[in-house]
Amino acid sequence: MEEIDNKDIINYLKDNSKNWSSGNKEIDAFIQKNQSNVSDNIIFEWIPYNQFSDIKEIGYEFSTATWKNGPLHFNINKKKWERKSNRKVALKYLNMTKLYSIKIEFLNKFKSEGIGYGISQNNDTKDYIFVFHEKFYEKNFEKYCEKCSEGYTDEKYKWCKPCLIIHLNFTNWTSGNKMIDSFIQEEQLKIDTPWDTVFEWVPYNQFIDIEETNIQGFITAIWKDGPLKYSEYSKNYKRNLRKKFVLKFFYNSQNNPDEFLNKAESYLTTKDSYVNGNFYGISQNPDTKDYILIFGEKYLETFCKNCGENYTAKIYKWCKLCHINYLKSNFVDWTSKIKQAETFIAFLQEKQFEWIPYDQFSDIEDIKNIGATAKWNYITYNSDDSGDSDDSNDSVDSLIFNRKVVLKYLYNLQYISNEFLSKIKSKDITRIYGISQNPKTKNYALVFNKKYLETCCKNCGTNVMYKWCKSCQTDFLKSNFTNWTSGNKQIDDFIQKEQLKIDNPRNTVFEWIPYNQFFSIKETDIQGFIKTGWKDGPLIFNKKSVKYERNLNKRVTLKFFYNSQNVSIEFLNKIKQKGIGSYGISQNPDTKDYILVLHEIYFNIYCLKCDEKYTDKIYKWCKPCQIDFLKSSFTNWTSGNKQIDDFIQKEQLKIDNSQNTVFEWIPYNQFFNIKETDIQGFITAIWKDGPLTFNKGLSKYERKCKTVTLKYLYNILDILDEFLDKVYISL
Questions:
Q1: Contact, 329 vs 405, CB < 8 A?
Q2: Of the given ranges (87-101, 239-253, 577-591, 686-700), which has the lowest mean pLDDT?
Q3: pLDDT score of 287 more than 90
């Protein structure tokens, strides 16, 4: 068996280059360039075709074969290069046209993946051949198109966009109009997935069984050939034969193709799946010359039967345009006495609620601070009304409903004004039926669903969530300001300001807490922190009793600010910064040090070591502390090469979260149970200590024995920069 010392391999390859030629200068140069730098696990070669035996076809332009001499392989134990004879390989055939379309980047890719042995040529057909590891076809070539050898656009479904574009073949059809042709071609080039609809020009004679519909401008028909559809099974496009479609005619559109294409574009750009996912192409009536858009069979379900436009809400088959027209038809009856009617009408149209005459209300009962409850007696011509009406009486042409509602009065607003509109906009309009006006007082009223009362504050009438009213709670806190003091005006002002920021019932009420409220004080392992109980406990809003109550004997953490007796802006800023999960401020009566009273969740947010916020709160991982840990370890190891040491240290300092791998220098004696693999230059081994892995439960790094793969890069010290570039790319 031929054996070559590692130090002699370059000279061997140079001498051998005189004995072969591919007949193509670009390929010769590519092979020679790669042979001049033997730093990889494989040597790329020109392989004479007579070296192959047992050639068997396995697919389009693919074969397997046995390479008699076999590839050059570096024997790690002998430290020599030798050939592995009778090696099974995969062959990919390329005709001359494909060869010239191959880019150097393509060649580089296959070589860098460690599976490309070289290039050959069929002596009879003159087709060039890529020679790969036998596992190439099974594993790697699934990523590349069998027809063009480019990477699949969609690997999972083996879908290649460039091949689809060639398949569509723009020269095989024409609409007879250059603008239409260009539009269709542009849409076809936008296809990005195998499931995108292929937009096409469809000759009118493709349609049979044409039937009229009850919507003007629409017909249904059978498309004989049907649209192109990608088959997961065959990995090709096939026609979905004799499917039913909807054709929408654009009358006289032949006179203005620009306008027609703008309309077509609007359908294609809509995010509505009813339209975009079922828009198949364009056709033309040969008699009238009217252009036609082709939609899926269910497309008519998305159209209003009255106006022929898309439903605003397709689920409910509700058309905004028709509803607006209905409201407009009634404007004359109820806007004649209202100023700024146009503004008001526009607002009603936008928000989709109505003007309700006050005489439709009966059984009006006043409610303090809110307005009134009433029964709304109204007529509807829609038998599908599904409101919460109390009763209904049938009549020949209509239904009369009695619905319980709440009237929220807007006092001293007799005219439609900007102030009036802003008041309406500030309310929760999701439960508003409309607007009315008391003819006697001239006060306007918003008409709400009866459930509105459940969200109103009994004291002030404000619409609130959880029956919690910000204005009332703020007033309560203000009234309590005189009942406590820290003895320092700056601290008092700070606490009062924080209390007035309360915005919802879940917010913590920040307080001054006397030190004698604390009991069972216990030291912690962290300097400046103690654990204790708080007798009265914090204020918590009880949703059931609808009031604040104290959570007695609450366990809390105290953070001491030593020598903070002299209050400064810097100190208050620190309090703000650490205020997340805090209940308030206290003071040690002996030392006069101020104290921040913290929620037990404080140490879920702040690092136990540095008291800064965790970079990753979920896993209690602190980037600054981990960086300090790695820096402190720099002196504990060295590769013996400063450039490599600097590279590793730089990579370690890039660590950004607990899931990142800590890049390390690993002494070779850490590896045992070393085994060769089928792929040249790769071995497997067990790493005794194993990599640094962050233990989420213990919130610290640990090591654990692990099986790893080692890739040898030969003669690398002469080209260290290139080596580090390769390592960087792999990272």
A1: no
A2: 87-101
A3: yes
Please say whether the beta carbons of 637 and 620 come within 8 A. Answer: no
Q: Which residue has the higher pLDDT, 348 or 588?
A: 588
Of 610, 519, 598, 611, residue with least CA distance to 559 = 598
Q: Give the helix/strand (H/E) hosting 391.
A: strand 391-394
| Region label for 334, one of left (φ > 0), alpha (ψ between -120 and 50) or beta (otherwise) | alpha
Q: Contact at 8 Å (CB) between 249 and 292?
A: yes
DSSP 606: B
How many whole angstroms separate alpha carbon 424 and alpha carbon 686?
71
| Nearest residue to 558 via CA among 528, 526, 535 | 528
Q: What is residue 514's predicted lDDT score, i.e. its pLDDT?
A: 95
- Range from 399-403, 471-475, 481-485, 515-519 carrying the lowest mean pLDDT: 399-403
pTM of the model: 0.39
Mean pLDDT (the chain) is 78
| Nearest-angstrom CA–CA distance, 279 and 268 | 7
Task: Record the tokens describing residue 654, joined without a space.
Answer: 């890039």
Single-letter residue type at 574? K
Q: Sort 400 into a burial class: Cβ within 10 Å, 0-12 / 13-18 / 19+.
A: middle
Contacts of 206 (CB under 8 A, 6+ apart): 223, 224, 225, 283
Q: Phi and psi at residue 554, in whole multiples of 5°? A: -75, 130
Tell which residue, 296, 298, 302, has the closest CA to residue 278. Answer: 296
Cβ density class 375-399: b for 16+ within 10 Å, e for less = bbebeeeeeeeeeebeeeeeeeeeb
Burial class (CB in 10 A: 0-12, 13-18, 19+), 563: exposed
* Residues in Cβ contact with 570 at an 8 Å cutoff, skipping those fewer than 6 apart: none
For the chain, the structural domain boundaries read: 3-151, 163-302, 320-459, 471-605, 623-730
566, with CB counted inside 10 A (0-12, 13-18, 19+), is exposed
Neighbours of 101 (CB within 10 A): 12
Give 411: exposed, middle or buried? Use CB within 10 Å, 0-12, 13-18, 19+: exposed
Architecture label for domain 163-302: 2-Layer Sandwich (3.30)
pLDDT, tens digit, 9 for 90 and up, residues 643-679 = 888 888 988 888 888 888 899 999 999 999 999 887 7
What type of residue is 717?
A: L
| pLDDT attached to residue 284 | 96
